[in-house]
Amino acid sequence: MARTPAPGAQQTLNPVGTDMTSAATIRASPIGEYGPMLYCVSGSAISVGDVVYVSGTSATAPYGGVQVATRADADAFVSAKGNLYVAETATAGSGEQVWVSRAKRLKNVNTNSALAALDPIFPSGTAGGWAVTPGVYGDPIGMVLVKSSTVGEVILEPSRNWGGAGGLIRATATIPFTAVRTMNATPVTILAAPGAGQYIEVVGAVHWFLDYGSAAYDAAASGDTLVLKYTDASGVAITDAVAGNAIGSASADYHTWVYPVPEYIPVANAAVVAHITTGEWYSAAGDSPLKVEFYYRIRPLDL
Prior knowledge:
Number of strands: 19
Structural class: mainly beta
Radius of gyration: 24 Å
Number of helices: 3
Strand content: 25-35%
Order of helices and strands: EEEEEHEEEEEEEEHEEEHEEE
Helix content: under 10%
Shape: elongated
Largest sheet: 5 strands, mixed, barrel
Oligomer: single chain
Distance between the termini: 47 Å
């Protein structure tokens, strides 16, 4: 439970570590859900749960020397790549005291645009916001805990290494057998498009798992290969293919690994989809879901 500082409480340093002897009052730090909050001055109107960055220090009494927190914007390099926090209190405008923290869980939010729980969260192009697809700048700052349009949950922890700065992000997906049956005509999106000027690079082995149900797919031929592509069925293949008669015809759990193709042209702002080439595996039988796991990173197309 958060504790509220007593009026006039004194300490040597303020929560952000700046000497506050010039301020009229030196405030103790209340405790949030994930640790002590940090005391700042608002550089803009701020709502609870906004992603904010330290944009400077205040020179205005009584906040002289206190760090200024301003809503972050993924379309601005300094903002998205700055020292990020999450707002614990709200302000109506600039020049007001605000408490921020390094981590915060947000509940009852709309996360329905995520493909699944554990999807990464990024700063968005809307100031203070977050999204499941990245803006122009910004590394992952959290992840989806619950996918829902009404009772979704996310954890925001911008200071943690979620795989940004060229690091890797783990992707997992389960494709239900009803979707597997039509995956030649209708590819299944595994990763959403990353945003303008950026592309998804699959790194290392891709693990496919046929989680056997009760019947093998009865029409899976060797040429009906399983592959990851950009965009859609006609998109660029970015991984080697798995023969359909190996995985699709399996009558027990089946695991296999493939690797990215050695050379391909990256496509900006393109989703990654799973596709069965040539023909469907299903004619009259087959009820096994497919699961896939791999690591990827989001890279700028222009150097």
